[in-house]
Amino acid sequence: MHNPRHIESLQRRGTPLNTRPASPYTLNPPVEADGFSWPSVGTRIRADENEEQESKRVDRISGAVKTILEELGEDVTREGLADTPQRYAKAMLFFTKGYQTNIMDDVIKNAVFEEDHDEMVIVRDIEIYSLCEHHLVPFFGKVHIGYIPNKRVLGLSKLARLAEMYCRRLQVQERLTKQIAMALGDILKPMGVAVVIEATHMCMVSRGIQKSGSATVTSCMLGCFRAHRTREEFLSLLNKRTI
Length: 243
Fold this sequence. Notes:
Blueprint: H1 4-10, H2 16-19, H3 43-47, H4 51-71, H5 84-95, H6 103-108, E1 112-114, E2 121-132, E3 138-148, E4 152-154, H7 156-167, E5 170-171, H8 173-188, E6 192-201, H9 202-205, E7 216-223, H10 228-238
């Protein structure tokens, strides 16, 4: 006869999905009233900083980086590392500038146009560079974006700018894919949106399993792209050298 206490001990306890929303980002509206998209807790503070305040932020990050280097056993006074904390601080602010980018004022602007077009629009091979939020190392690759307009189109360069904004945050590829798709859907209200990302993750290539040449592919299909025929048309166009 089984011991009830033993059976209870074998049951799974709480998991992250059981205890909190799967994604606090994509469960919220893509664009907030002031034009920011899925802002972090410090987004508006960074966006409103003047030059002096930003300089102090750089100094605080630099101090933290200096501590890390010392804990690694390095001599932070040697020539090669003397200015590294400052350089790294400024680089990190650039790599995460997407937090303080206003999607409406800085990205979309006045580039939504009324147009009687209802066929697929695709921009392929947009280069992306981002930081994995689990290890703070890069992942990079290409994003392909497609949508079917519903009387409204977006300037083509804005699709690349939209991807760039979300890349310049601490990310996971799955969330990045969904954020691009959901934001485009919210702004244009098209009949459907499709986003595919192919990326190489340095946390997988240079550490851990160390499998060079591996690539991760994620997709997000919204609206009519969930239908098999439309999805297949989009994917077949991505595989062609010319459209």
